[in-house]
Write a structure and sequence with these properties.
The chain has 405 residues and is of the alpha/beta class. It is built from 13 helices and 19 strands. The chain folds into two domains: 171 residues, 3-Layer(aba) Sandwich (Rossmann fold); 218 residues, CoaB-like (Rossmann fold, 3-Layer(aba) Sandwich). A hairpin with a 5-residue loop joins strand 9 and strand 10. Bound molecules: cytidine-5'-triphosphate.
């Protein structure tokens, strides 16, 4: 990863996570970037100016009132290829959203035309406050990239959402924002999560899918330059640059996929779609018969097949489209995946051996075998779901480039 010749303004505001900005600065400088650091007065309570000045490419900027350079913020703002705010406090996010430029950091943000990456960090209660969430939504709407905070240990020993993303993760986002990416110009549609099929007003047929693998694929595709539509049954943090469509049932998922199908170059069916649904859905709650203790209508639920979305996509595939399916197997992984590839007209099947420890649903890790037409199956060993996502997209890119060569 080379950021040689790139001018990056690293803005640090006053939160305990300011110490992570030091590591981020080092990663950026090591990758060849010219890093101009900016700190708020509050940030100086957490890290020393000397530390950042020593690691960065020029001394830290803190004040608008500098005799030797009357307009330092506009000079920095115009020269920047990218501005990153890490950590971004609730105050800085609020000032930026409201267009208030009361000190160097926010003045620089408002003066720039460069892409901006904001990495919030604060206590969960603050992060979830409607004022902060509305400011974040405003910035997103204006095209600012938001790298959502992670869930974990916070200052004072609390645990929750609000922890600054790890420096390596912020670095990868910056690198992706500054490189065109091998999926640039494509539209990638990803489905994620398990569908829920209503039995009555309160009961559903569901499955254990958490949606994490689908989200990871959506996030990696966006990082690689794709326009991404994520159709999902689960409500995890939306990765930046990703359009999210919320659905619940197999039918809704099918309708949402069919609506965007025509413009898609790649469709990844990572969702665990229920194969069957109750034929009749009661609009009220089915009640126990007090005399027998039984629930009429629940004993023998009549089921019917849901639409097979992957098969429909495979059958109606356009020449430029790559259709990817998933398979959860417990035996004869490759043979079953090859059959599924043919039966559903897919280009790639991502097969998990769900009998293995740490694989598949509800884990943060996965191990898969990638089965496509005309090449040997590729085994991807146990790794976190983002690494698996990268391998799946590498295979997609290979299929696309084999077609054009
Ligand atoms: N799928 C779909 N529509 C359905 C069911 C499944 O699009 N109604 C997709 C899933 O998103 C996944 C793939 O098909 O990409 C899984 O195929 P499926 O036949 O459901 O796999 P398994 O349940 O693993 O099948 P098997 O019956 O072969 O065990």
């Amino acid at each position: 990863m080379s950021l040689r010749g790139k001018h990056i303004v690293l803005c640090v505001s006053g939160g305990i996570a300011a110490y992570k900005a030091v590591e981020l600065c080092r990663l950026l400088v090591d990758a060849g970037a010219h890093v101009a650091p900016v700190m708020t007065a509050d940030a100086e309570h957490f890290i020393g100016k000397t530390t950042l000045s020593a690691l960065a490419s020029e001394p830290v900027h803190t004040t608008l009132w500098n005799d030797s350079d009357p307009i330092p913020h506009t000079r920095l703002a115009q020269r920047a290829d990218l501005i990153v705010v890490a950590p971004a406090t609730a105050r800085v996010i609020g000032s930026y959203a409201a267009g208030i430029s009361s000190e160097f950091l926010t003045a620089t943000l408002i003066a720039t035309r460069a892409p901006v990456l904001v990495c919030p960090a604060m206590h969960t209660e603050m992060w979830e406050h409607p004022a902060v969430q509305e400011n974040i939504a405003t910035l997103r709407r204006r095209g600012v990239h938001i790298l959502e905070p992670e869930t974990g240990r916070l200052a004072g020993g609390d645990v929750g959402a609000g922890r600054l993303a790890e420096p390596q993760h912020i670095f990868s986002q910056i690198d992706a924002m500054l490189s065109p990416g091998d999926l640039y110009g494509t539209h990638v549609v990803v489905t994620a999560g398990g569908t829920r099929e209503p039995i009555d007003a309160v009961r559903v047929i569901a499955n254990r899918s958490t949606g994490k693998q689908g989200y990871a694929i959506a996030q990696e595709a966006a990082l690689r330059g794709a326009k991404v539509t994520l159709i999902t049954t689960v409500d995890l943090a939306t990765p930046f640059g990703v359009d999210r469509v919320a659905v619940e049932t197999a039918q809704q998922l099918s309708d949402a996929v069919m609506q965007v199908r025509a413009s898609a170059d790649v469709i990844v069916m990572a969702a665990a779609v229920a194969d069957v649904r109750p034929k009749h859905q009661a609009s009220h709650k089915l009640k126990k018969d007090p005399a027998t203790g039984e629930i009429p209508g629940l004993g023998a639920i009549e089921l019917e097949a849901t639409p097979d979305i992957l098969a429909a996509l495979g059958a109606a595939k356009e020449v430029h489209q790559v259709v990817v399916g998933f398979a959860a197997e417990t035996e004869n992984l490759v043979a079953h995946a090859q059959m599924k590839l043919e039966r559903k007209g897919a280009d790639l099947i991502v097969a998990n051996d769900v009998s293995q420890a740490g694989v598949g649903f509800a884990h943060d890790t996965n191990a898969v075998t990638l089965v496509s037409r005309g090449s040997q199956p590729v085994e991807v060993v146990l790794a976190d779901k983002r690494s698996i996502a990268r391998s799946v997209l590498d295979a997609v890119v290979a299929i696309r480039s084999a077609r054009t060569n």
